[in-house]
Every structure is written in structure tokens, then in C-alpha cells.
Amino acid sequence: MLRVAPGAAVGEGRDVSGAWLPTLGLAVAVAAGAVTQRVTGLGFSLVAAPFLVLLAGPVTGVLVANALGVAVSLMVLGQVYHHVDLRRGALLLAPALAAVVPGALLARVVPAAVLQVLVGGTVVLSLLVVLALGRSVAGGPPGPARPGTTVVAGAATGFLTATAGVGGPALTAYAVATRWPQSAFAATAQLCFAAVSAASVAVRGLPVLPATTWAAAAVALAAGVVGGTALSTRVAPPVARTGALAVALAGGLATVVDGLLGG
């Protein structure tokens, strides 16, 4: 049986190692998230986290998403680092890292079923906000990145990464609102995701999974990045982003329903 990570809710752990099908499902979710991250600059946790939560439970699933999020962000960052906006990245990271601790504390005390609904609901609500915000500001010139807006976006990214494993939508909403150029946003986002996910892992710890499960996740992650690199020159980012949003929305809704039904 899958052992529950330190701080996990009682009864939260789910078996992803006793049969090949759950492990295969985990690998598919990881690969899909990695492809999305490489093609669009974000979306690993947004796509993978809901399915990881369905497969492994809300605590373990979020921790796996955080741990693999560090790896995929660093892999992509190695290819796009020359576009990183270090100044804005630092302004976002300061509040993001500070918000990881309260987010981790909340995740420790919330019941597993409630946490699962929180994860799925966060994904769905965030997607709807980003889509609505995108329509409201589409076509305009770059907007100002006000200090207060940057602090809120950074704090939301850190808090949601630690609690639900999905800090990307908060950063995306900020990028859309300020009309941050895509190349700089996508590169800087990798730096932010890697640092915040690493902080979450440091605070909450790693889930105890069999070596074979971690190996399958690592292979799927690498394959997803390689596949995403190949697709990035063939698939237009808006098309890939639309597909990723659809998958993430379906996963978020399924996670909410499963949590409401008691997992």
C-alpha cells in the first residue's frame, strides 16, 4: 500500500503501486503536464495535479505535483533562461515564498475530502477567472505591474502551490492583467514555479512512494519535455493552451465530484 506522507490526513493515502493501471495513469498525467509546460510555458500542475489527486489522494497527489514541478520547471528553464525577467521574478518570489508556510499549515489541518474539493475547485475557478480576464483585457497595450498587484499575485501563487499544487493560474492572471510579453512571462514563470515548488517540498516533505512509481514518473516527465520540445515548433501555443485548459477543466471537475462523494 502507498504510505501517507508526513502531515497527511488520516485515510488520505491511495494505492498507486499495487497494480499497473494506477501507475500508468500517473505516468500519463505527468507526461501530459510536461508536454503542456514545454509548449505553453506553464500548465504542468494545472493539467497533472487533478489527476494525481484522483489517483493518490489530495495530500500525496499535491506533494507529487510539487516535487515533479521542480524538475519540469528546471528542465524548461534550461532552454529559455535567456528570457527571464530577474527583477520581476524576484518581486513575485518574495511574497510567494512567504505564503508557502501558511498554505502548508492549512493543508495539514483540512480533512482529506475537503482538501480534494479545494484542489479541484481551485483549478476550475482559476481557469474561469483567467478566461474571463483574458477576454476583458484582450488587444490592449502592456499594462503597469503595480507593486500591490505583484505582491498579491506572488502570494496567491505560493499559497495555492502549497495547498493545491496549482499556483500557475494566479501567475497567469497576473500576466494577462499586465499584458506581460509571452516570452518573458513563460521563462520567468519557470523560475518562480521551481523555487515555490521546492519551498513547498521543503516545508511539507516528500511522499513515500515505491521506487518503481518514482521511476515511472521520471521517465514520463522526461518523455513529456522531449515531446513538448518537438511539438513546440509545430503546434501553435494558443492551440496547445486551449487543449490544456480543456483537460485541466475536466480533471478539476472530476476531482471535485470525487471529493464530494467521499473519494
From TrEMBL:
It comes from the Bacteria. The keyword Transmembrane helix applies. It is found in: Cell membrane; Membrane. Keywords: Cell membrane, Membrane, Transmembrane, Transmembrane helix. This is Probable membrane transporter protein. It is a multi-pass membrane protein. The chain crosses the membrane at residues 20-39, 51-77, 89-107, 114-133, 153-177, 184-206, 212-231, 243-261. Its main location: membrane. Belongs to the 4-toluene sulfonate uptake permease (TSUP) (TC 2.A.102) family. Pfam families: TauE (PF01925). The keyword NAD does not apply. GO terms for cellular component: plasma membrane.
